Amino acid sequence: MYAAIDDTDNQNEMCTTYIISQIAIKSKYDIIGYPELVRLNPNISHKTRGNGALNINLGKGKGNKKIVGKLNDKYIYSYENIEEEPEADEVMDFIYGIVSDYYVREDENTNPGIVVSSGRFHPQLYQKALEDDIKLEFIENYLDGKAIYRKINNGHGIIGASASLAWPGEKITYELLDYKYPHYNFLQRDIKLSMASIAEKYKSTFNNIDHANSYAAIFPKFKTPVIFGVRGVDSHDLLKAYNDIKANYNINDDGFIIFKTNQGTDDHIVNEPEYLFDLGSYSITVVISSHPYNIQGGHFFIGAKYKNIDINLAAFEPTKEFRKIVASLIPGDVVKAYGSFSSGTVKLEKLKIISLSKNLKKEPPVCPNCHVKTRSKGKLDYRCPICRRRYKNPEIYTVPRGIKEGFYEVPVIARRHLSMPLKLINYFGEENDMYNWNSGNR
Length: 442
Description:
442 residues, alpha+beta, Aldehyde Oxidoreductase, domain 3, CATH 2.40.50.1010, 20% helix, elongated
């Protein structure tokens, strides 16, 4: 029996994943498969921190079992298959009790929702939750006859909870989250960077550390029950990374849970759509149509054409050194832009330079007799300052571009949960023969 929850935290405290950890440790049921952390549309206005929804499958398990966590010195196992399913109302009462104990009551914008279902939902609902801002009424109608649900406050969380049960899991990564309730003591920056570097040693992990910006991405920005989280494509390596960190640092934690996730999969990206809609995220092939410019705050913009539509590409200040790539583009360059679309602008997550146009520069010609540069006296009128001979044609030469064709991505400090790092592109087998990494900005 699947139980899904969302919207139990706020931007500054708590974490819905922690509630799943309490469900796992306090449940009289077995866990079937991995608990799931499913990130949804990063562009909607009403969202929780990270905009992730959670679900867990509970029942009497059978078959092979594996470690999916350890809390209070007790290992938590999951089973490969389910033998017996509990009653939906019984599971709902159990989940509701735990959510009621831990959600952020003090924030009126926290609106938990719980959905309990014997089966998964259609993947179209998941796709809609990646591209659109789903209304509460739509989900209530959708759930009618399919599942039971409960709302706390306005219950907005049933939207994300339902969408998590529609995730088809075609591309999968994992995240190990380590906990201390209510939160862990402050860690110095150098300690954080060192701990993140341990996780980075494993080739299967990603988004651990941003060396250029001295940023340890495995740590939350606010005080939550999460001490750190290590993401990767191999759950066994996550366990090794956790043990390595624990062996090197005296962390007084409560334990960890490993989640199956859609993080780093680009599931939110729609490739080459016929039309662009606000709130959507796309990969589109465009021709650069203007020179770049920047505005106050360090944000860079450049004009482009997509299917004869004029749009802008944007690299905002948090993307740091990635802005230099956008600043190096000129009219005629052909690029594939990845990012979310709003009000005519693509907010870049990564960029593939497909072809570079020649950057041609005109200069007054050199007088062949006097070997000095002529001076412009008007259109197609160049005169030697010594012999006064006149020339019509300028000298044209190609200026080196300083960038190459290939892929560039925003640094880890600015990377979204869903955005696929270049490190994972070959793992997921997308356009393997086309990808040429440019590692200078990673």
